[in-house]
Amino acid sequence: MLKSLGFSYDWDREISTTEPEYYRWTQWIFLQLLKRGLAYQAEVPVNWCPALGTVLANEEVVDGVSERGGHPVIRKPMKQWMLKITAYADHLLEDLDDLDWPESIKEMQRNWIGRSEGAEMDFPILSSDGQERDTKITIYTTRPDTIFGATYLVVAPEHPLLSSLVSTAQRKSVEEYTDLASRKSDLERTELQKEKTGVFSGCYAKNPVSGEAIPIWVADYVLGSYGTGAIMAVPAHDTRDLEFASKFDIPIRWVVMPDDKNLSGSGKAYSGEGTVVNSSNSTVGLDINGLSSKEAASKVIEWADKTANGKKKVNYKLRDWLFARQRYWGEPIPVFFLDDNGETVPLLETELPLTLPELDDFSPTGTGEPPLSKSVSWVKTKDPLTGKPARRETSTMPQWAGSCWYYLRFMDPKNSKEVVAKTKEMYWSPVDVYVGGAEHAVLHLLYSRFWHKVLYDIGIVSTKEPFKCVINQGIILGEVQYIAYKDSDGNFISADSGTSVEYHQELIPEEKVMKSGDSFVMKDNPNVRLIARSHKMSKSRGNVVNPDDVVSEYGADSLRLYEMFMGPLRDSKTWNTSGIEGVHRFLGRTWRLIVGSPLSDGTFKDGTLVTDEDPTLEQLRSLHKCIAKVTEEIEATRFNTGISAMMEFLNVAYKWKKHPRLIIEAFVLLLSPYAPHMAEELWFRLGHSKSLAYEPFPKADPAFLKESTIVLPVQINGKTRGTIQVEETCSEENAFQLASKDEKLSKYLNGKVIKKRIFVPGKILNVILDLQNVKATVR
């Protein structure tokens, strides 16, 4: 199908990320990450999917279920391979500014990285008698100016200090709550709209600035993986904290007054900046009353640093990339563990690729042990340097691993000695245009940028970024479906008469529908208004258009042309089979203009109707105006308006009596990216023996882009009285004659004595009248 549509792929560069000769280099890149401390193992709370028998990254969990299959996901601690993407957080964030990407995609990555500046503050834990214990809870806040308003602390259910904090009376309640929280995904826990839940730990901490004892609560809206896993809650100035405090009757203290005093009495949390109040304690030597929020924040951080109660801190939402999967189908991780001490040993680069063993049963074990653990003979190995017995890693890499760097392999697909040859990488990099959906924003695109930056740092690639320009293409929706409602008696009723729950729906064929204003109605009953909807093509809806059928009826070029003519590449478009007939007619008209009308038997004469004479100025202007427009629209991926420009040119060309070769050949080259098959046939008919694919694309000559006429201002005795349309090369006499015949200007000139004329070609005509010898005129 791809070949029939004329897609110009270099099939010699075809690669498969699942072949050993490819993933050998994926494993090699992993070893480079391991050498630099960017790959490591850690005991972390993970998203475990029992149905899939594997761990999933946060990005692969949507609304508490797996992205693929929709299976329930729970949280549990496991030892996993991680990639330290956080080490590149600042680079990933800062370098976004230089990319020609959709702003929405860049903003999604900025939010995912989530850089914030604030402070870490220590809150001493109090014993049951109110004395400070040796342990402190460290919190991270972006608003240290509000610390006097912190009336409670919240720790995540997985906080490492939780078990030591909980009182005997509260232990059972806390354990039940933490077990419930472990069954939720991070997204579920942090959903802003969900009802806030929590449980009191039975323990208190000391607010380091106010000296007050404040309760420590456990709540799942705080994540152990973000910041320190604990927050100071300031209900007067945070909506989430206010909802929680209101539910559990926790004090609320205002410490920031907005410039608009009405906001402080609204009953809602005020999260903005303002003037700090109620924030002074001479005992600890801190007074920030009357300061702006920014000034107060700086002073609190300075105080915390001096008194060892905290420090300035930059934080990120971005977490290290969980890189292991408990499934068979993935690249084996090239390490093994010595039996005697568990030491991790990387595989020698000369032993790559490490291939998967053959397995009869590669289904999940259900225990957390990966399927590869079933291949005992493969798992058992020896250290080639010491001969010590060892066990291979049985987790595999995620599906993103191979796609992180495939674009580099396209540059040098057969290289068996290195990832990519330096000369080829420098020639091809970076990728000029990447076309892909927005769903890749914080997965593939972010991971690829991370790996590319690591490869840049070790000298494998010459650019900091892999993709210069990213375009999010729109999707093609199925044809419009017209839906009518019927009441219980089977009578058609207008769509705004009720809801689909109360009435039966029926699809109405397009031929029975007509447009009425902004709505669609039934032809035989215009009072019945219909619902018009387009859906994403899917087999279940029965609205899939088979491209093979379209090619069979209209040809591949018509399909290509119509898909581009439907609208800009970035927009979603609705398919309409009848719409393809318009571009099919355009191609037919193009063929007949150049080749001529068909003979009586339906065939065409050999050759073309073009002439070898020089083109006229008008023809050159029409051609180069079309070249300029098509070139501009191709570069902006507005292919639809490029096609419109060619249609306009064709309409003009049909008015010419002769069609010079110079003009027609350039037009065929313009058409070739859109309709390559017909353009190629026309090119050979024009007398060429080699493919037009090797011809340079036409370039617009600025000399022919200027308009042939200009607007010339006309003055009478130095005062502008009107304008006339003249040729650029118009003479003074011709300009004066045109002005004399102009309806508006003639009344100033007829019957008057002309003293002199001042003419600046292309600029102005000034007529000086002899006011002393004015001829008699009829009043």
Q: Superfamily at the CATH H level of the largest domain?
A: Valyl/Leucyl/Isoleucyl-tRNA synthetase, editing domain
Q: How many domains make up the 3D coordinates?
A: 5
CA-CA gap between termini: 81 Å
- Report the major sheet: 7 strands, mixed
Low-confidence segments: 775-779
CATH class membership of the largest domain: Alpha Beta
Q: With helices defined by DSSP (H or I, 4 residues minimum), what is the helix count?
A: 22
What's the total number of strands?
35
Question: Could you describe the 3D structure shown?
Answer:
This protein is of the alpha+beta class and 779 residues long. The chain has five domains: 11-96 and 322-406, 3-Layer(aba) Sandwich (Rossmann fold), CATH 3.40.50.620; 116-315, Valyl/Leucyl/Isoleucyl-tRNA synthetase, editing domain (Isoleucyl-tRNA Synthetase, domain 2), CATH 3.90.740; 480-533, no CATH class; 546-706, Isoleucyl-tRNA Synthetase, Domain 1 (Orthogonal Bundle); 709-773, Roll (Ubiquitin-like (UB roll)). It has 22 helices and 35 strands. The strands form ten sheets. Strands 6, 7, 8, 9, 10, 11 and 16 form a seven-stranded mixed sheet that branches. Strands 25, 26, 27, 28, 29 and 30 form a six-stranded antiparallel sheet that branches. Strand 1 (39-49) and strand 2 (54-56) form a beta hairpin. Helix 17 (617-635) runs antiparallel to helix 18. The radius of gyration is 37 Å and the shape is globular. The N and C termini lie far apart (81 Å).
